[in-house]
Write a structure and sequence with these properties.
Layout lengths: L11 E7 L8 E7 L6 H11 L3 E8 L2 E7 L4 E2 L3 H13 L9 E5 L2 E7 L6 E7 L4 E2 L4 H10 L6 E4 L5 E4 L24 E6 L16 E7 L4 E4 L3 H15 L3 E6 L5 E7 L4 E15 L18 H8 L7
Parallel strand pairs: 2-3, 4-6, 11-12, 13-15
Antiparallel strand pairs: 1-2, 1-17, 3-4, 4-5, 6-7, 7-8, 8-17, 9-10, 10-11, 12-13, 13-14, 15-16, 16-17
Length: 319
């Protein structure tokens, strides 16, 4: 049970800076604990007001937890840093025990997570890795890279997740200021990963004292995110490629955005990638607003509590 009373203050909410070991780094995720399903309009409106890369919404059902993620612009099917944030929030509220794995139930299926027992703020989560499809480099992308990074792509992939991935030379100035989002054409706007081998150790680039094996940056203007600071789903997508290239089952990834951070990536069972990282609480409080009572007319199948949960996105195993 929670160690916090929710009445009369309101719904508990926190801001976690994920995949970072110190304040003002990593990726901010707001996390809100609900008591009942809320409709999509309210969820999206709150995410727009909180203005983080993602806002995570947690809904308990018995001893299980449902989880959804919204950018300020739309709902997303998968989000690593806000999953880490949600886990750390539950630990902060006394809802979960360190060292005991469990699953979040999401619209992308169950995600196994575990709050670290050895160090505060450390946790792990398993994300699916959908695989990469090698394709020719689009001409428009080649032109952008030549103009803004004075380099050419070494390889280009698309993925079922909707992200495109570009391999750049290790000498490319990937950490330089880049404003690519407004210039991205077509499907590249859904998510573009630029990555390179970390052939040298830049100042401050360490994950738990380890030097990264690769760096990346991530742009997704169609999701309402010009640049995401540290993107767990992108690392889960590309980590298997780096593992194969380096002949290892464990690699360290770094995101060299203006709010940098990183994670350890390990091969897990059934094609999943385990992300291990840290985060910390920036603020903690209660919302001074609440969702309206569930309106059956907001979904054609929400006439009962069970249907309301299904409409909200419940993917629990059948009894």
């Amino acid at each position: 049970m929670s160690n916090r009373s929710r009445a009369p203050e309101g719904l508990p909410a926190v801001l976690v800076e994920a995949f970072a070991d110190r304040p003002f780094h990593g990726n901010g995720a707001a996390v809100v604990r609900l008591d009942a399903p809320a409709d999509d309009h309210w969820l999206q409106g709150l995410a727009r007001s909180l203005r983080q890369s993602e806002t995570a919404f947690l809904l308990p059902r018995g001893d299980q937890w449902l989880l959804r993620w919204f950018t300020p612009h739309c709902e997303v099917p998968l989000c690593g840093h806000a999953t880490l944030g949600a886990l750390l929030a539950l630990g902060h509220w006394g809802e979960v025990t360190a060292g005991q794995p469990f699953c979040f139930h999401t619209r992308s299926g169950p995600l196994s997570v575990e709050l670290g027992a050895a160090a505060a703020g450390r946790a792990s989560l398993d994300l699916p890795s959908s695989g990469l499809r090698r394709e020719p480099v689009p001409d428009a992308l080649e032109a952008l890279l030549a103009q803004h990074l004075t380099t050419a792509a070494e390889a280009f992939w698309t993925s079922p997740l909707g992200y495109a991935v570009v391999l750049l030379p290790a000498t490319a100035p990937l950490a330089a200021p880049l404003r690519l989002a407004p210039l991205l054409p077509g499907d590249l706007r859904k998510g573009l990963v630029l990555m390179q081998a970390a052939a040298f150790s830049a100042a401050g680039e360490q994950v738990g004292g380890e030097i990264p094996d690769y760096r990346l940056r991530f742009f997704a203007p169609d999701l309402g995110i010009d640049e995401d600071p540290v993107t767990g789903s992108a690392h889960a997508l590309v980590a298997p490629w780096w593992m194969e290239r380096l002949g290892r089952t464990r690699v360290v990834g770094w995101q060299c955005s203006d709010r940098p951070g990183g994670m350890v990536c390990r091969a897990a069972s059934s094609g999943m990638i385990r992300l291990i990282g840290t985060g910390h609480l920036l603020w903690d409080g209660f919302l001074q607003t609440a969702p309206p009572p569930w309106d059956a007319s907001s979904s054609p199948d929400s006439g009962t509590a069970e249907r309301a949960l299904q409409a909200w996105g419940c993917l629990l195993p059948h009894p």
